[in-house]
């Protein structure tokens, strides 16, 4: 290809990109979406999440769906060719298929399920392998927060991602440069406050737990808790069957409690302060353990709170 032809091709791509962002990621012959690299996936996300709030929603979602559909057409039709009626029908089908948590908007994980991506990068989202409990999460946190800073910095995150790929027997397929690209991309995706590292609540979104057991309705406004309810919670956190909840077990329990209060934004300092408050409240701050009796006291207090009282 000579210089003039190359320039014309580049200009054509720029025009298509300006007209319909998704068209550049489709095969010009088959119109199928090509596999996206980590950087390309991030470009798509950043383009449509225009307000940077972590969701594609409202007019952002409408724009994405119009461009997603019209880009599949062999001829260069405008996204506006998708009528409002077509858009509503499309949105209904689309959200039923991809809006896993049924909140009416698309988050980063849901988009990752929709778009074809490099297999190795997709593995890092751990769709099929959530953690069993926050106890596991806190053990992993302790393992990778090697400097005990209370944050997962870029080099620690890279070690974590490397080990994930090793576990999936894919590490030999990933160069060091590609691993750095993955690390940078995951930081861009999950570092909500943009301080260049992951705090507890941000890492919790990257490494999800199947369920926060304490969110179950039985612990919210219940008139009484049964012995079976208490025993279920105790066995969930007393992973080594020692008869007490301690160390990472205690921190996992406190993380789940903290999520009921702080929701989407908490860090290791919040967890430490919360631990001190809870342990002092049950009168056992010295040895850093919780027995069945103390757990019962905490859960009964939690059950008596109304949603407005939780803070």
TrEMBL record:
Which InterPro entries does the UniProt entry name for this protein? Calbindin_Ca-bind, EF-hand-dom_pair, EF_Hand_1_Ca_BS, EF_hand_dom, EFh_CBN
Q: Which GO terms describe its biological process?
A: regulation of long-term synaptic potentiation; regulation of presynaptic cytosolic calcium ion concentration
Which Gene Ontology cellular-component terms appear in the entry? Answer: cytosol; dendrite; nucleus; terminal bouton
**Source species, domain of life:** Eukaryota
EF-hand domain: which residues? 36-71, 85-121, 132-167, 178-213, 225-260
Tell me which Pfam families the record gives. EF-hand_1 (PF00036), EF-hand_7 (PF13499)
One MF term in the entry's GO annotations: calcium ion binding
Alphabetically ordered keywords of this record: Calcium, Metal-binding, Repeat
Name the family: Belongs to the calbindin family.
Report the protein name in the record.
Calbindin-32 isoform X2
The organism named in the record is Drosophila lebanonensis
